[in-house]
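Hi, here's the filled form for the chain we discussed.

Project: internal
Contact: R.S.
Residues: 105
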Amino acid sequence: MPLFAALFASVLGGLSSLLLAIKGAEWGLRVTIVVAAGAAYLAIVVAFSAVVAPWFAAITSSGYGLLLGLLFPPAAGTVLAVLAGFWTLIIGKRLSVRLLKMTAP
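And the returned structure, exactly as it came back:
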């Protein structure tokens, strides 16, 4: 009976280790993609706030810029950042799927 218990524990231990390795790699890839997408979104928002927003404010303070201010409200920067983040996420997903297919047997 102890021999059967040792065999059973060994088989289940090996199976659980295999499943943990497979699922761990999948979760690691998902976490990496989410962190990369969040970092890309944050970089886009910071770049917009630091560079584009002051430049845009200087443009819209002129007479011609008032028309531009009506065409592009302040929320436009956030919308552009969300769209850029979305496409970054799509491209990252496609790249990760390609890399996963290249490494999978």
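Let me know if anything looks off before we file it.
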